[in-house]
Write a structure and sequence with these properties.
heterodimer, A: 194 residues, Rossmann fold, eleven-stranded mixed β-sheet, 13 strands, 24% helix, B: 251 residues, alpha/beta, TIM Barrel, 10 helices, 11 strands, 37% helix, RibuloseP-bd_barrel (chain B), His_biosynth (chain B), HisF (chain B)
């Protein structure tokens, strides 16, 4: 099993590598197109600001490579947001894998949302063995509103989507690599998706 | 529903937890990773590691420790203590830290906050503020609360939010070490005037104090050290009790 973690200068990607290690899988942090294409699973992480992240993807051609991938791909946090068609943050055009806009939380609650929140309406094998209302760790100011390709929802002032699925592409707003054993189970499920 | 966070804080010196930690199940009471693992298994929501070493080698030692922690811990953690530059932050995040907390360096050079936020995102910038009341006014203090500044707590907090801080860790020097409860009035005012999460620190002694800081102090998270290290409060008991009082808590 070859797992590629896409490296485009995003913040803490070590944690994903270590979480996979705890599950018994090795992975490679890479920005090399051939290595990414040859991998069995691709993880697209992301921490930081949308427009500068998109710039980095463009400078290496990853913006064209990612949407063309055919193996299972998992976008995490900003990675998921960049897979959408547009992010309000930095007025950023996304990779348009998921046809939905990412918007800013606009309510009386604290922004960013930081901490553990429940996820529900769980669908697909990504959530095999995960109970409804499991807690996941999230840090974000922008969100995907309720959407037809949603495979998990959460609630922060509004009900919104925390996981998306289309063909071979998966995206999660939460950090499975930071969400204890349940998060690790979700990563394991992703690797075992057939 | 987003839950309130319980955050144990571990003091680190030269890669080891500072003595004074009293866990019978620890084989090595100085091993931060062993201790952190126990906290993670006992439903701590996050961890904070505060480096208090003052050696030449500190950067390297801390980065190595952060990498070891990230290897073994599956919950988020923040690293603080002596962080003074974007390069310091880059090294810690690259080693596996989720967030960094900056304190004195932010006061001396406020632009550091925006530089870190721009490069790595606000989510990883926790600004720690130590303050105590002087003639009824909350004044920011440096060097672990020893050195007073002219800065007003609330003004400074608003400024760091504008500069791009993702969270504020507010320690009341008046309450720290007293075990008489958190500075809930100041905390509630911070929560009211700011839109970023506030972590309450200083004064935890009983379960009631945590309930009060969430209900009266409107805190988003509560940090404590000795009550957890000396097992005066066990985190699962604390969380069970808070949940029974109607507070959103992850168990």
């Amino acid at each position: 099993m070859k797992i590629a973690i896409i490296d485009y200068g995003a913040g803490n990607v070590k944690s994903i590598e270590f979480a996979l290690q705890r599950l018994g899988y090795s992975s490679e942090l890479t920005s090399n197109a051939d290595t990414v294409k040859a991998a069995d699973r691709v993880i697209f992480p992301g921490v930081g600001e949308a427009s500068s992240a998109m710039k980095m993807l463009k400078s290496t051609g990853l913006d064209r490579l990612i949407p063309a991938l055919e193996q299972p791909v998992l976008g995490i946090c900003l990675g998921m947001q960049l897979m959408c068609n547009y992010c309000e943050e930095g007025d950023t055009k996304g990779l348009n894998i998921f046809d939905v806009k990412v918007v800013k939380f606009n309510n009386q609650l604290k922004v960013p949302q930081v901490g553990w929140n429940t996820i529900f309406d769980l669908k697909t094998d990504l959530f095999n063995g995960i109970e409804e209302n499991a807690y996941m760790y999230l840090v974000h100011s922008f969100y995907v509103p309720a959407y037809r390709d949603s495979i998990a929802n959460s609630s922060y002032g509004v009900n919104y989507s925390v996981a998306l699925h289309k063909n071979n592409f998966y995206g999660v707003q939460f950090h499975p690599e930071k969400s204890g054993e349940i998060g690790e189970q979700i990563l394991k499920n992703f690797i075992e998706i057939r | 529903m987003l839950t309130k966070r319980i955050i144990p804080c571990l003091d680190i010196k030269n890669g080891r937890t500072v003595k004074g930690i009293n866990f019978v199940e620890l084989r090595d009471a100085g091993d931060p990773i062993e201790l952190a693992k126990i906290y993670a298994e006992n439903y701590a929501d996050e961890l904070v590691f505060l480096d208090i070493s003052a050696t030449e080698e500190r950067r390297k030692t801390l980065a190595q420790l952060v990498e070891d922690i990230a290897k073994h811990i599956n919950i988020p953690f923040t690293v603080g203590g002596g962080i003074a530059s974007v390069e310091d932050v880059a090294l810690l995040l690259k080693s596996g830290a989720d967030k960094v907390s900056i304190n004195s360096a932010a006061v001396k050079n406020p632009q550091l906050i925006s530089e870190i936020a721009k490069r790595f995102g606000s989510q990883c910038v926790v600004v720690a503020i130590d303050a105590k009341q002087i003639n009824g006014l909350w004044k920011v203090h440096l060097v672990g609360g020893k050195q007073p500044t002219e800065l007003d707590l609330f003004e400074w907090a608003k400024k760091v939010q504008e500069l791009g801080a993702g969270e504020i860790l507010f320690t009341s020097m008046d309450n720290d070490g007293t075990k008489k409860g958190f500075a809930n009035e100041a905390l509630a005012r911070l929560s009211h005037e700011l839109h970023i999460p506030i972590i309450a620190s200083g004064g935890a002694g009983t379960i009631q104090h945590f309930e009060d800081t969430f209900k009266l102090g409107k805190a988003d998270a509560a940090l404590a050290a000795s009550v957890f290290h000396f097992k005066e409060i066990e985190i699962p008991d604390l969380k069970q009790e808070l949940k029974s009082k109607g507070i959103a808590i992850r168990i």
